[in-house]
Every structure is written in structure tokens, then in C-alpha cells.
Amino acid sequence: MKKTMKLLIAYDGSQCAGAALNDLKRAGFPRETEALVVSVADVWLPPPASEVAAAAEMLPPSVRTSRAHAIETEEHALALAQQAAAQLQKRFTGWRVSAVACHDAPWWGILKQAEKFKPDLIVVGSHGRSALGRMVLGSTSQRVATEANCSVRIARGLFAEDVAPPRLVVGVDGSDHSDLTVSRIAERAWPVGTAAHVVAFADVVNVAIFSSSECPPVSGLMPEDYEKEEARLREFATAAADKLRAAGLLAAPIVRRGDPRREILHEAERWGADCVFVGAHGHTRLQKILGSVSQWVASRAHCSVEVIRA
Questions:
Q1: What is the pLDDT of residue 229?
Q2: Cα(299)–Cα(259) distance, rounded to whole angstroms?
Q3: CB within 8 Å of 230: residues ≥ 6 apart
Q4: Average pLDDT over residues 122-130
Q5: CA atoms within 13 A on the CB side of 159
Q6: Are residues 303 and 172 part of one domain?
Q7: What is the CATH number of the domain that holds 57?
Q8: d(C-alpha 141, C-alpha 14), whole Å
């Protein structure tokens, strides 16, 4: 029996947030899904009126006006969340969908709701449309992707409906993180015809700017080192593709040489992928911030990206 998947979906009523909702139908989520739609009012809300009743008459008009505006903004945020929840409930009849609103900095409000709800995956929209916009991400999506303790999907969904089976690019490197990523994909309920390119790259990028006496540039590796690494990656990619095929996907292993960060993006664009899956290496704050492949791909991909964490 498959366990219920829990999604926390950030929603702000924007066009990108609406596209992110459309993107959900291409993510292979099971019928047994519980979704919480969260809208965050980016305002500061003073203490409740009951706590300042004795001094209410002493409050300056500007404070009373500010409080009224904050309450109205949070009520609007709740209305947005409820509208999105109603859309999801209509689209995914088997899901259990609820809505909540809060007042806070958007990224912090989302993470605090995640602490309470404990989702398997947080879904956030990306407001970047140009290459530069994708590079820097929106501040909210970037902070959530960096700080979350669970997996995060940065949804760059289509603004129009699309019923074609999803195309996935799965980045692997033979690590436990890659194995977890493949397992998470295999557990989902993908539509018939879903295809996946399982890609691994022997890293030949010159990283001299990060090198030291303890860590020489990979450009100093010998050809036989590349061949050994390619053989290792080919074995892992083939096993991963076999696992996805056993789960009903059309999967093919691909092994090339190159910088994994750039080559995964090139493969996704060349193939017209709908989503890229990458594992997050490490859980400390420093590792989250400096996760080279996952952070690079998440911030620059033309399509949705899922960063998988245990």
C-alpha cells in the first residue's frame, strides 16, 4: 500500500503561480495525495485588538489604518488560497486539499507552514521569465529551495493546457542522492508514455579556481581516468533506467563528458523536457547554498526542476 504523498503548494495568485498549478498534472503525483495550499500576506500585522483594547484610543490613526490594511491583505491571501484549492480539488478529485493563509515574509511563511505540515514536497512557482530572471530566481523560490528540509519543485509550468506525456531528465552521478532521486520518481503514478532520459556526465570541466593542493583540477586527469569514470556512470545510469522502466516509464541511459551543470540543461532544452530531477547533496546550510549542480540547474532551467532531499 502506497503512503499518502503530502504537498505544500505556495500560491500568490500570479500568472506564474497559475502555471505552477497546471504543472502539477505533469508531476506524476498519486491519487493518494494530501495538498495544502499556502498564501502568505507579505505584511506586518500588529497584535490582536483584544491585546491593545485598553490603549486603542491612544493608538495613532496610522497604526489603526495599517492594522486594517494588514487584516484585509491576509483575508485576500486566504481567498486566493481557497480559490486555488478549489481548482485543485476539481482537477484532482481523489486528493484531499485544504488552504491556509498567514502573514510573514513569503519565504519564511512557507517554511514555517512546512514545519507544521511536514510535506514530502514543496511546490513553488518561479517568476523568472528571461534567462536573467531564471538565473537569479525569485527571492521566495530561491530561499525556499535553499532552506527547505524536504524536496522542492520549482514549477515553471505551461500557461496553456498540455496533455502530452511528460518528458523527464534525471541527473545521476552514482551517489546515494542519485539513487534516492530515481526511487522517488519510480514511486509516482506517471501517465502512459512518460519518458525519461537518465543522464550522467564524466566531469571534465576545469575547476582550477576551486582547486588547491589537496584538490587538483579535474583537467589534470588522464584519459584512462575518464574511461573508468564513464564506465562507472554507464553502469549506474543503465541500472537507474532499468528501475524506471520497471515502474512503467520509457527510460534511456545517457553518458557523456562535460560539466554536469551545463550539460543537464543542454539535454533538457535539446529534448524539450518538462522537468529535471536532481538530488540535493548535503543538508547543512553551507552545503545547501553551495550545492553546485542542483542550485545551478534549479536557477537556470527553462522547465520545472525538482531538487530531491531525503
A1: 82
A2: 16
A3: 202, 255, 257
A4: 72
A5: 6
A6: yes
A7: 3.40.50.620
A8: 14
